[in-house]
Automatic annotation (TrEMBL):
Its EC number is 2.7.13.3. It comes from the Bacteria. This is histidine kinase. The chain crosses the membrane at residues 9-30, 158-177. InterPro entries: HATPase_C_sf, HATPase_dom, His_kinase_dom, HisK_dim/P_dom, HisK_dim/P_sf, Sig_transdc_His_kin-like_C.
Length: 462
């Protein structure tokens, strides 16, 4: 029970209520002491008035009056005259004098605390104002034993009452907390356990029902999280199924392309000038397709294979990409620009770098062709002491909002209608495999620019 929320709340409530009662106890005991002393002054005043009414009171009656008032002496000042009205022998000298006429709260509390913890029997003088204006002041001497005993009894009564109030209050709060907080929290925990058992089951998603604002917000946040997670799990399941299907297709396609390679070897032996010029391009394209199928099979088993890093002449890779894209546009008014130093070499896997640049250029070409307006695609490169930077810029319409939001997310960052969004996701993964980054520099109505950043040092050094 002590480890539960309601149990700890019960204990804390008792502690805080008792603490509040203690804070009330100190001024209360001071008030009780003041009332006690004022009552003794009032009794003494009544006794003195009885004596003033009859000067013939005997010693026995005078002693009885003092006993009833629980004082030793009574001094009454009337008309500027101080008069000892009643007196009896005192057991010891007076230890202290307390004037109740001008005492403030702090002084009363301090005197009460001292008296409560002082076990010595003492004689004190108490001065106060007579009731009903029966003089200027009244003064009595008395023992502290009865005062301290009365204060202790009063204090114990307060403490017992405080304990009862604390227990009752805490019990009521305990029941309220269990009803308004603990039970809804247990319901949320139950939903979480049920959902964890089968997160793909949408029926197990929590439906917010709490009346407490904070718990309602927690339930809504949990519901949103569960909805997103369920959708993500379904997407991953679809991706796994798609990956398996792609792996099967790639396996068969690789066999077909391997056969095509055998035919291209014979085509290269042709004496036709056009065939001689186009054959190397065809051979390179088929070779890359075979390599892509093999990479897809490896990806279906685990992930993209690690890059085989070598120093690649960048102009050759970009030229191959541009030549392939020129074949795809036929008579469309689209120009290509290359701003790359002739001897610039980058440290990369040539096949993977080709795929990255090809994906970016292909996306740019498709975006411009979709507008039916002339355009330009530019590939530029630069370097500094630590990295190479390859920029692909186009004059297309820019990326739509959905593509910007899920730019490198498979099946969500598609740029054109019907696109899968795999190209950018694969490209980003390939660049990360080189220890680099694929960044979107800008995109607006004037076009889009991507930048490939490849480190010059080892991946561990970057």
């Amino acid at each position: 029970m002590l480890r539960s929320l309601s149990g700890r709340f019960l204990i804390l409530t008792i502690i805080f209520v008792m603490l509040a009662e203690v804070l009330i106890f100190v001024p209360s005991i001071a008030r009780f002491r003041e009332d006690y002393l004022l009552s003794r002054l009032e009794r003494a005043q009544i006794a003195s008035l009885a004596l003033l009414a009859d000067d013939m009171i005997g010693e026995d009656l005078e002693a009885e009056l003092l006993r009833n008032a629980e004082v030793f002496n009574v001094v009454l000042r009337r008309d500027e005259m101080r008069q000892l009205i009643l007196s009896s022998p005192m057991p010891r000298p007076i230890d202290a004098t307390f004037d109740l006429r001008a005492a403030g709260p702090a002084e009363l509390i301090g005197d009460a605390v001292k008296r409560l913890f002082d076990r010595e029997e003492r004689v004190i003088r108490v001065i106060g104002a007579p009731v009903r204006e029966a003089g200027l002041l009244i003064e009595v001497t008395m023992q502290t034993t009865g005062l301290r005993s009365a204060m202790i009894d009063y204090g114990l009564n307060i403490l017992w009452l405080s304990a009862v109030i604390s227990v009752i209050t805490a019990s009521m709060l305990f029941v309220a907390v269990r009803g308004f907080l603990v039970r809804p929290i247990r319901g949320v925990v139950s939903y979480m356990k049920s959902y964890a058992a089968a997160p793909e089951d949408a029926r197990r998603i929590i439906q917010p029902s709490a009346g407490v604002t904070e718990l309602r917000e927690a339930e809504e946040a949990l519901q949103s999280l569960q909805v997103e997670l369920t959708a993500s799990l379904k997407q991953k399941e679809h991706l796994a199924q798609l990956g398996e299907a792609v792996a099967k297709v790639s396996h068969d396609l690789r066999n077909i392309l391997t056969s095509a390679q055998l035919f291209t070897d014979r085509i290269e032996m042709s004496e036709d000038p056009t065939v001689k010029r186009m054959a190397p391009k065809l051979v390179n394209s088929i070779t890359r397709a075979v390599n892509l199928c093999e990479s897809t099979l490896a990806f279906g088993k685990a992930e993209e294979p690690p890059p085989r890093l070598t120093h690649v002449l960048l102009t050759e890779v970009v030229s191959d990409v541009v030549e392939s894209e020129r074949l795809a546009i036929e008579d469309f008014d689209l120009s290509f620009a290359e701003d790359i130093a002739a001897g610039l070499k980058v440290r990369a896997d040539p096949e993977q770098l080709y795929r990255v640049i090809a994906n970016l250029v292909r996306n740019a070409r498709q975006a411009i062709v979709a507008t039916s307006q002339p355009g330009e695609i530019a590939v530029a490169a630069r370097e500094d002491d630590t990295s190479w930077f390859i920029t692909v810029t186009d004059t297309g319409p820019g990326l739509p909002p959905k593509a910007r939001e899920h730019l490198f997310t498979p099946f969500q960052g598609g740029i054109r209608k019907g696109g899968s969004g795999l190209g950018l996701a694969i490209s980003a993964e390939l660049v990360r495999g080189h220890g680099g980054k694929l960044l979107l520099l800008r995109t607006d109505e004037t076009g889009t620019a991507f930048e490939i950043c490849l480190p010059k040092g080892d991946v561990a050094e970057t």
